């Protein structure tokens, strides 16, 4: 975007642009995910209040959560962004062209919709059996005690997300498509869609919920769990792919 010989003291546009992006990312990180979770939780709690249930969260507790969010979590995000902005940028292993190269037309199985959908199958397959026992312990009040096996499944999930994302990224780079950043995140993160679909299947086959509020609580909490799982698996896939791309370009000589 900017000429390599630009003097930052004479033309502060690069610094201002970078600072603006940092502020936007900081606001999104501190508000987007917590805001979605808090909104869903507040709406669900509103319906529980309407049922006059003893399980409703008091209004004072909600206010305390808001204080923790805006008083502790958000300032820490901006503090981390401040120190991250002051750090020296990473030195890329190869020279990057100033003009982006045109991506050739991709075959059907390398289209984002297909590759992202397929990429989420294996990570979900690594956890769906354990997901059944977790859902049973939460919604059917069964005991869950195999935490050692849960740790093993979590390790398998990390390895699976990393491997499937690196493989799909390798095929993408071989097809001369260098837009891998969000594709890597969505490839492993798409397993969250299968998780939510399985929760719908579990609701209609294993649970006998007839009340509207109970069903709303189930799908609301499962939607929150799906968002958390999406961010977790997507982050694993992105960092694995970032490391993979860094390594392969560090090992080659590019003039």
From TrEMBL:
An annotated GO BP: protein localization to membrane
Keywords: Membrane, Signal, Transmembrane, Transmembrane helix
Main location: membrane
Pfam families for the chain: EMP70
One cellular-component annotation, GO: membrane
Subcellular compartments: Membrane
The keyword Transmembrane helix appears for this protein: yes
Protein topology in the membrane: Multi-pass membrane protein
Domain of life of the organism encoding this protein: Eukaryota
Membrane-spanning residues: 31-50, 56-85, 116-139, 145-173, 180-204, 216-245
Protein family according to the UniProt entry: Belongs to the nonaspanin (TM9SF) (TC 9.A.2) family.
Protein name in UniProt: Transmembrane 9 superfamily member
Species of provenance: Chrysotila carterae
